[in-house]
Amino acid sequence: MGSALKMTPEVSTLGPEALAFIKSGVPAKDAKPVVNAVKELARAKEVSAPTETPPPEQPVEAREVKPKRAVKPQAAPQYLNHRITISVTTRLEQRTADALRRAHLEQKLRNVRPATQQEIIELAVQAWLKENGFLE
User: How many CB atoms sit inside 10 A of residue 108's CB?
Assistant: First the structure.
């Protein structure tokens, strides 16, 4: 910051303490205690900080890299293939949404179909519609 302040209407209304703070960064009344406290902290850190030399770098041993076990992705069931989908928006109760999210993640981790939220919802709605005579 420059040593001279440009006297704008806002700056001209400030008191001498505020101007001293702006110029020095420390309030005029509390300048010495703050400066002394900072100096004491710096001295304490210098005294208490042990000088440690970093340990020499250890050579990294070459580890045998095991190939990841290939998980054969399960093929999508026939009822989920080659279907045209449309967007349907709905709201679910919190506990239903939580259960759906958990089911989806557990199915995905086990690599079992239905694994997506879309597939789970599709099967559940189809089952209800068939049970109630709305779907053949």
Answer: 14
Residues 53-82: pLDDT tens digits?
Answer: 656 666 656 666 666 666 555 566 665 666
For 18, other C-beta atoms within 10 Å of its C-beta total: 13
pLDDT in tens, 29-60: 555 655 565 566 667 666 555 555 656 666 65
Using DSSP, state whether 42 is helix, strand or coil: helix
CB 118 within 8 A of CB 76: no
Read off φ and ψ for residue 18, nearest 5 degrees: -65, -40
Q: Show me where the domains of the chain are located.
A: 10-48, 88-131
pTM above 0.70, yes or no: no
Distance of CA 41 to the CA centre of its chain: 34
Q: CB under 8 Å to 122, separation ≥6 — which residues? A: 80, 114
**How far apart (Å, rounded) are the C-alpha atoms in residues 78 and 100?**
22
Residue 5: band (very low, low, confident or very high) from pLDDT cuts 50, 70, 90: low
